[in-house]
Amino acid sequence: MSLLETIKKRRSIRKFKRKSIPEEYLEEIMEAARWAPSAGNLQSRKFLIVKNPQLKHELAKAAYGQPFIEEAPVVVVACADLERSALGYGERGRNLYCLFDVAASVENMLLTIHELGLGACWVGAFDERLVAEILEIPSTLRPVTLIPLGYPAEKPSAPPRVSVDEAFTIID
Ligand SMILES: Cc1cc2nc3c(=O)[nH]c(=O)nc-3n(C[C@H](O)[C@H](O)[C@H](O)COP(=O)(O)O)c2cc1C
Known about the structure:
46% of the residues lie in helices and 15% in strands. The chain is α+β, with helices and mostly antiparallel strands. It has one domain (12-154): NADH Oxidase, CATH 3.40.109. A 4-stranded antiparallel β-sheet has the order 1-2-4-3. α2 crosses α5 and α3 runs antiparallel to α6 (128-135). The chain is globular. Bound molecules: flavin mononucleotide (FMN).
């Protein structure tokens, strides 16, 4: 599959089979995250890999009851390392760059997950304070994305995208 095909074919998956993910797949997903770009190469991001059913249940509740979060065999909790970024870039690091560092990793993971025949969803709607409490995340880290992943049990069609003309303005 070409990269553009992988990008276009990836979908948010919100139904998963009850089947665990091979460890080597998880390793490849982590590797993809690790190699994403980051501001000043500070890599201001940390990830928790949650497999524990009770913790996944609590995460789903913290995400306003989105049920697929606890149905997924694995949930990656992606956190911005606020202080690491602030040490390099002050407020801009703390408020912006570390979020980009996480986002770049998240997209790398989503594409790798799709290429492995797995599925996932980028989840941003959750109570950060509750998630930090459930997983005992220190205040220097900000949990910003949940990624439930597993074998897909649905094949959604592609939601529309705006046209290139709408999204881009060419300035000669
Ligand atoms: C920042 C962000 C937050 C999102 N939060 C959620 C969420 O909380 N729950 C959910 O079901 N999908 C969430 N999504 C997934 C989007 O709904 C999805 O990417 C979009 O509808 C396009 O569909 P596609 O991913 O299949 O191309 C989020 C995506 C992004 C980028």
